[in-house]
Specification:
2 copies of one chain form a homodimer.
Chain A: H1 5-8, E1 13-25, E2 28-35, E3 45-51, H2 58-70, E4 77-83, E5 94-102, H3 110-116, E6 118-122, H4 133-150, E7 162-163, H5 164-175, H6 181-190, E8 194-201, E9 209-214, H7 216-225
Parallel strand pairs in A: 1-5
Antiparallel strand pairs in A: 1-2, 1-3, 2-3, 2-6, 4-5, 7-9, 8-9
Chain lengths: ~230, ~230
């Protein structure tokens, strides 16, 4: 089929996907980053990403990048935003669609990530990034904070069984501030989306911390319903 | 400056913006639509849009489309989503960035819109649209409903002075269901973001309906703070 002239005469652009991949480990929110392998800015820190190929949807391109760097597929990914400024990439004009993913860091393929040259950096370790990638990270964090205010959060990031201190660490990382222990405990339990297990996590104290599990149905109902969570 | 081979060897794509422009008039939420002027699907109903040009950011392209069709600039526009499926446009592979705008329909340039071939259609008048434009409209409505639940809404769409029945009409259009009058009145006034004026709108009843105006500062504070609005 020949392309109508309306299309044929219009400019074409490089389109990239950039992926903000969040994980949670050792009480820290972490991001999967890599050192850029090409010029300009070879060796500088960057999000993982790549160009959208012919015959490949933007969603598929983001899934490909996630799979290449973590070995994971069927992961919760959402579009963050399109970054469409003309000068954003110093190599050429590139329109970037940013995606963010929340993964259980324990389940990703560490060998694959290392071979790819990808590293998990916690928030306070993240250096200046190339182009507008620092802005993308800030925007993704703002999106996470927004999610945390109006929807339950943690299911995608925490291991299946987790303690209240772990969940509070996660919220503290997202909000970037300390939360009151008792207040957090009261409010998070009041959501009614967690099931207390007959097991304890004894890694952090002798007495141990009770383990919980999300009730997936209640969690999803609250996700649909929304609320305001202030701690 | 020569383009690094990493960029030069990557595929390029047509990138469009499609704009979902909402207005509110005669108690109806309306959308600015047009009949497509080019093949394929010439004459079919479409959102207003266009291709992103060289040296033009995607935001600027959306602002250009809005300005061309309504005469308005400096308008609240937000990205909705990138639509990146390979087959979405039957003419060629086009990646589209959808934007939505909320405008005061009374303030747009009717002559310009008509000359451009654009028409305001209320939600129940909207026919099948080309490509994935019906999906874009559905997604924009879902975004509006989400906004209405967690943030105040109406400032961008209503005239400066408006009555409670007008505001309820707007919410009914967004939610696509009837709302209880007394309950709505109580909850919307409890937000504390409206100022009651010493004027009445006598266009709909002899007794008239009091006119209100948003308190911009309180409105914006509530926008930042968020809440859950259930009616």
């Amino acid at each position: 089929m020949s392309i109508p002239s309306f299309y044929a005469n219009s400019p074409r652009h490089l389109v990239a996907v950039d992926c903000i991949i969040f994980g949670f480990e050792d009480g820290r929110l972490k991001l999967l980053m890599m050192k850029r392998k090409v010029d300009p800015m070879e060796g500088a820190w960057s999000l993982v990403g790549g160009f959208v190929q012919e015959g490949e949807s933007t969603d598929d391109a983001a899934a490909r990048v996630l799979q290449l760097t973590t070995g994971l597929d069927n992961i919760y990914m959402d579009q963050l935003k399109c970054y469409g400024d003309v000068q954003r990439d110093t190599g050429a004009r590139v329109i970037s669609i940013a995606y963010y993913a929340l993964i259980r860091i324990q389940e990703h393929d560490r060998v694959l990530a290392t071979e790819y040259g990808a590293h998990w950096l916690s928030l306070h370790q993240i250096p200046d990034l190339i182009f507008d990638h620092s802005q993308m990270v800030q925007d993704a964090l703002a999106r996470l904070r927004d999610k945390a205010r109006f929807h339950p959060l943690g299911f995608e990031l925490l291991p299946e069984k987790f303690s209240l201190p772990q969940l509070r660490d996660l919220y503290e990382e997202i909000y970037q501030r300390e939360l009151d222990k008792r207040n957090f405990r009261k409010k998070i339990l009041a959501m009614g989306i967690m099931e207390k297990l007959d097991e304890k996590d004894k890694s952090t104290s002798k007495k141990g911390a009770h383990l919980y599990r999300f009730d997936k149905q209640k969690y999803e109902a609250l996700t649909r319903h929304g609320f305001v969570f202030e701690v």
